[in-house]
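Usage

Read records sequentially. Each one opens with the input sequence:
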Amino acid sequence: MNEKIIAFITKQTCGNLCCVTAKGKPWCFSFFYAFNKEEGLLYYKSSEDARHSAIIKANPFVAGTILPDKLNLLQIKGVQFEGTVIPFEHSLAKGAYSAYHKKFPFSIAMPGQIWTIRLDEIKFTDNSLGFGTKLKWERNEMSLNSK
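and closes with the structure output:
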């Protein structure tokens, strides 16, 4: 994954996620996340009985956005991504609990599970690198270590 994409996602704290119901209707929600740059994963906390959780259990394919925590209208930056929410027992989800609570220790007191999004595709827009600059990344066997 490109170092500029990694730096951007690591620096931010909140994203927006969209899932799609069995009837094809979209549903979006905001979430705080922790980022695992080595594996290309986002971790977030949510209740299993939330509307979006029920939708994701039936259809784990999601899309989302991450904007800067502090917007600068002259230097537009942001990530659009596609991913898959993986099951709690999946090997990639093993470090989710500790990684999320390390970034957000206060959330230990909040009920909910830590969910894992495997990032599959990213488009990063960064106008500070030149107007309209877009960096793209797609998951493959070698992609996490490639620039």
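Summary fields computed downstream for this record:
- Strands lie at 14-20, 26-36, 41-46, 61-66, 77-86, 113-126, 134-138.
- The chain has one domain: 3-145.
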